């Protein structure tokens, strides 16, 4: 059986492509949210693997570090999903989140969700990550 809801893992499980989620483990908000998803995935044996962009080979994802930090990414088979579609793919696999995944497909909801995430939430998290990284590089910052 593949290492589900962890790091690394197999390409498929039970004839189904494993969903790989790429997230920023250095982001406290992201880590907390992914921790919740990881616990659910483990509890329900969902075919999900979580890859911290700070500890994996981004060349396998075909993106650079900056792009990885800007949005949540998911890979299922050969498909790369970015932003709201990545969340939707994850939510479809997790009990308690499937209804939200279905709601994203309603007319206008996906557009509103994508607009909110792409224009507001993701840029705020990205800028906060850049500030944290800059503070870590400053001499005497602690």
Can you describe this structure in just a few lines?
This protein has 142 residues and is an alpha+beta fold. It has 5 helices and 6 strands; from the N terminus they run E-E-E-H-E-H-E-E-H-H-H.
Characteristics:
142 residues, alpha+beta, Glutaredoxin, four-stranded mixed beta sheet, two-stranded antiparallel ribbon, 5 helices, 6 strands, 48% helix, 15% strand, globular
Helix content: 40-55%
Count of β-strands: 6
Structural class assignment: alpha+beta
Low-confidence stretches: none
Spatial order of the strands forming the largest sheet: 4-3-5-6
Question: What are the secondary-structure elements, in order, as H or E?
Answer: EEEHEHEEHHH
Give the radius of gyration.
Answer: 16 Å
CATH fold annotation: Glutaredoxin
Report the span from N to C terminus: 42 Å
Question: Which architecture name does CATH use?
Answer: 3-Layer(aba) Sandwich
- What is the overall pLDDT average? 88
Q: Specify the overall morphology.
A: globular
- Beta-strand residue percentage: 15-25%
The biggest sheet, with number of strands, parallel, antiparallel or mixed sense and barrel status, is:
4 strands, mixed
What is the count of distinct domains? 1
The top-level CATH class is Alpha Beta
Query: Helical element count?
Result: 5
């Amino acid at each position: 059986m593949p290492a589900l809801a962890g790091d690394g893992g197999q390409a498929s499980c039970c004839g189904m492509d494993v969903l790989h989620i790429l997230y920023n483990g250095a982001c406290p908000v992201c880590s907390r949210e992914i921790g919740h998803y990881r616990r659910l995935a483990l509890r329900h044996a969902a075919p999900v693997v979580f890859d911290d962009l700070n500890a994996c080979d981004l060349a396998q994802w075909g993106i650079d570090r900056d792009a990885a930090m800007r949005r949540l990414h998911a890979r299922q088979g050969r498909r790369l999903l970015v932003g709201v579609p990545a969340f939707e793919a994850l939510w479809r696999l997790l009990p308690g989140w499937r209804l939200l995944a279905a709601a994203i497909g309603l007319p206008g909801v996906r557009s509103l969700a994508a607009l909110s995430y792409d224009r507001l939430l993701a840029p705020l998290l990205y800028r906060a990550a850049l500030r944290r990284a800059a503070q870590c590089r400053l001499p005497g910052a602690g």
